[in-house]
Amino acid sequence: MKTRTPNKSMMAASALVATLLICAVLGVSVVGYLSLISQQNALSMRSQAWNMAIAVVEAGIEEGLEHLNADHADLATYGWELANGVYTRSNTLPDGNNYVVTIDVTTDPNHPSIVSRAYMTSLALAQSAPAVFFADIGSQPVSLPPVTRAVRVTCKKGSLFLAALVARGTVNLNGNGIITDSFDSSDPNYSTNGQYDPTKVKDAGDVASNEGIISAVDAGNANIYGRVHTGPGGTVALGPNGAIGSHAWQAGHTGVEPGWFFDDANFTFPDTTFPNLTGYLEVPSEKTAVVEQDPSTGDYVTNYYDHVLSDGNYVADSLSGSTLITGKVTLVLNNGLNMGGSDSIKVAKSGSLLGGTPAQDASLTLYAGGTGESINGNAILNGAGRARDFVVYCAPSVTSLSLSGNGQFIGVLVAPNVDLHESGGGNDNLDFIGALMANSVTMNGHFSFHYDEDLQNLVGNGRYLISSWNEVR
């Protein structure tokens, strides 16, 4: 019997073929795996670009919103170009990404729109560079188009009169019996015939200081039926009997009710510069007899006024004597507002006149110039009792303001450069109804502030804010 000896060369060849096949399979697998990793990395980078595009979009919206508020009178400035009623500007960021932002104020002037579109380079946004594989050398990188994403926002102006008392600087309420609360002249549940009613009060008598310092608001022993706001890092100080919070909480507590103090104040003050006086009329000076109904008795009496102003815009250096406002009036007083004694301003209430009855409650927007203003006693009479119907803007030149006597002020008083120091105050609880804004406030007497929440509905005097947000293609 013969024994066969295996051919070693044939065995070696078979092993080589098997090895080559295995290597080929593994090579194909590795190439496929590397290709998958490359594709996955590309998709990951595109996903990052898509997510981060919204941050670039927001940068464009912020720029557009700031330009809309700061330069609304002339938007074709600071690199913004006007074409077909739309203002456009582009900006390239340091990382190479960019955005194009447009402002449209013609389609709906009351609700301007801003569209911001971001253009992103995907590869520039990878959080970590892809690993290098020698087996992948020479392969073509995945080419991704730039990622683009756009958002359209609609803007509208809100109210700036959002608290009973607002100051840029400090607020000091160390007087005797100082209180703040709120009501709503537009809601019969929280007012009586639109008037403040102490039996229908609310808890929005907020006090605010934009300062971020210790004791930015020193409430002393005041009763603040509302919230207190300071600038970031600011604090509030209280006396032993002071309290901040709701009526229900203060019925059994002093101090600060939990959740009623915030260091988030950043209140914007309205622009108090004079409007363009082109077309303004001189205040007429002619003694006029007006038959009015006495609100307390219902009887009709004849009153005489030195000035009667109906709908329109008026200008004068100053006012003396009695003035009756019977329509929607804007009045500019170059030398300031100084009312007291025989000098007075009355804003008529609808139905108060017999003959020539105003179709609606009259209103007065008054711009006061000079360096100082004074209001004494009941020199200002707001017949309708709504704060929105009497708004006083003290020009930037005004640095002093006096509220004296036992009178009642119903309206809004904006004095951005006045450091208000008051040591008087009335004998009742109806000193100030509406809203007060000043550079700083110090109260050492008896004062009551009743914020009219209807002022929150007074649109058009604030900054443009975003009212809607929609992603577009």
Provide structural commentary.
The chain is of the alpha/beta class and 473 residues long. It contains two helices and 34 strands. It has helices at residues 8-70, 247-250, and strands at 81-83, 86-92, 98-104, 113-120, 147-157, 165-167, 171-173, 179-183, 207-209, 217-218, 223-224, 228-229, 236-237, 243-244, 255-256, 261-262, 281-282, 288-293, 300-305, 307-309, 312-316, 322-325, 328-333, 338-339, 344-347, 363-368, 372-376, 380-382, 390-394, 400-404, 409-422, 432-443, 448-452, 464-472. The strands form five sheets. The protein has a 19-stranded parallel sheet that branches. A six-stranded antiparallel sheet has the order 1-2-3-4-5-34. The protein has a four-stranded parallel sheet with strand order 20-22-25-28, with no helix packed on it. A hairpin with a 6-residue loop joins strand 18 and strand 19 (300-305). It is elongated, with a radius of gyration of 35 Å. It starts with 7 loop residues before the first helix and ends with a strand.
